[in-house]
Amino acid sequence: MTARAAGDVVTVGILTFRRPEGLRESLPRLLEQVRQVPGAELLVIDNDDLPSAQGIVAERAAAGDPVRYVHEPDPGIVSARNRALDEARGDVLVFIDDDELPSPAWLTTMLATHERYGCAAVAGAVVAQFESEPDRWITAGKFFERKRYPTGTRVPAAGTGNLLLDLRAVRAWGLRFDQAFRFTGGSDTAFTSELVARGGEIVFCDEASVVDVVPVERATRSWVLQRAFRNGNARARVHLVGVRSRGAALQGRVTLAAQGAARVAGGAVRSLGGIATLDTGLRAQGARTAVRGAGMVAGAVGGVYQEYRR
Q1: Distance (Å, rounded) from C-alpha 131 to C-alpha 212?
Q2: What is the 3 state secondary structure string of the chain?
Q3: Measuring CA to CA, which residue among 58, 12, 46 is closest to residue 31?
Q4: Would you give the distance in Å from CA 296 to the centre of its chain?
Q5: Which string of b and e fits 104-113 if b means at least 16 CB within 10 Å?
Q6: Which residues form the Glycosyltransferase 2-like domain (predicted)?
Q7: pLDDT (tens digit, 9 = 90+) per residue, 196-220?
Q8: CB 101 within 8 A of CB 6
Q9: Which residues contact 32 (CB under 8 A, 6 or more apart)?
Q10: Is it the case that residue 5 has pLDDT exceeding 70?
Q11: How confident is the model at residue 186, as a pLDDT?
Q12: Cα–Cα distance, 98 to 21 (Å, whole number)
């Protein structure tokens, strides 16, 4: 991809669903950074059934801030992500979640990385911050730790929690977020994996970090294990979604089921080892591996875990 043209519009897209307090906290920080980039705008996509976030955004717009509001009532984050693709006015779209806070110079750093590497996408670091001190089992299990890489590292896929997309590549290849994942999660992994399969590069930028604020209700053993199962289930489905032939699909299902079963067994052994040695981290990480493996097995045999159905 070539460098962004002077005066081109940069759209920062924040997807929101019934998080008014998080949106009120993030909007001023995002707008502060958007104002520093000529031609940049903030786009709020409200995925609630009713336009519940409209008033919050209208307050900022009335004050002259470069922010637009769009209501996308079709349930599921896939529809909100696709609406952002459609609403973006220029060639660069930067996604951030409504429960995330950008680091200083986050936006300019993302844009500088994109221009430096000429890539189809830039994935930034996501760092968890707990609202209150969680159970030691949660932190020892590293449930909220995301992988980080040196800036410039090419990665095979990325989430949309902190992601810049060059829309020239997206439009050229006709990429969309797949509605098959609307209630399950995984559409961002499927989308970015396809981007790479088409020849695009996703470059990691460690300096352009955002803070993921983890509320108390998510920092529980039941929630993180549920998420581990969902991640395993989505991983299997992402691998299978593009397979066309019956033979290849069967082989893929068998392979994924075997991989998932191996994780269940290995995770169980690891967790038991943690119990025997009083190692909290080993016990928690083993449980995560086992439950994620169970999700993979379920996905391999056609099970669909719809965490986001409403």
Answers
A1: 10
A2: CCCCCCCCCEEEEEEECCCHHHHHHHHHHHHHHHCCCCCEEEEEEECCCCCCCHHHHHHHHHCCCCEEEEECCCCCHHHHHHHHHHHCCCCEEEEEECCEEECCCHHHHHHHHHHHHCCCEEEEEEEEEECCCCCHHHHHCCCCCCCCCCCCCEECCCCCCEEEEEHHHHHHCCCCCCHHHCCCCCHHHHHHHHHHHCCCCEEEEEEEEEEEEECHHHCCHHHHHHHHHHHHHHHHHHHHHCCCCHHHHHHHHHHHHHHHHHHHHHHHHHHHHHHHHCCHHHHHHHHHHHHHHHHHHHHHCCCCCCCCCC
A3: 12
A4: 19
A5: eebbebbbeb
A6: 11-151
A7: 999 999 999 999 999 999 999 999 9
A8: no
A9: none
A10: no
A11: 95
A12: 9
Nearest Cα to Cα of residue 185 among 226, 221, 128 = 226
Q: How many CA atoms lie within 13 A of 72 on its CB side?
A: 25
**Gap between the terminal Cα atoms of the chain:** 39
Residue 7 has pLDDT above 80, yes or no: no
Token output for 185: 């999660």
Instruction: Please tell me the predicted confidence (pLDDT) of residue 226.
Output: 97
Q: For the purposes of burial, counting CB atoms within 10 Å of the CB of 153, is it exposed (0-12), middle (13-18) or buried (19 or more)?
A: middle
What is the bridge-based pairing of β-strands 67-71 and 40-46? parallel
Are residues 80 and 15 in contact, defined by beta-carbon separation less than 8 angstroms?
Answer: yes
Q: How far apart are CA 76 and CA 91, in angstroms?
A: 25
Tokens 């019934």 sit on residue: 18
Per-residue pLDDT reduced to its tens digit, 62-83: 999 999 999 999 999 999 999 9
Q: Which two tokens stand for residue 100?
A: 């995330």
State both tokens at 130.
Answer: 């707990």
Residue type, 129: Q
Residues 6 or more apart whose CB falls under 8 angstroms from that of 199 comprise none
What integer is the mean pLDDT of 174-197? 96
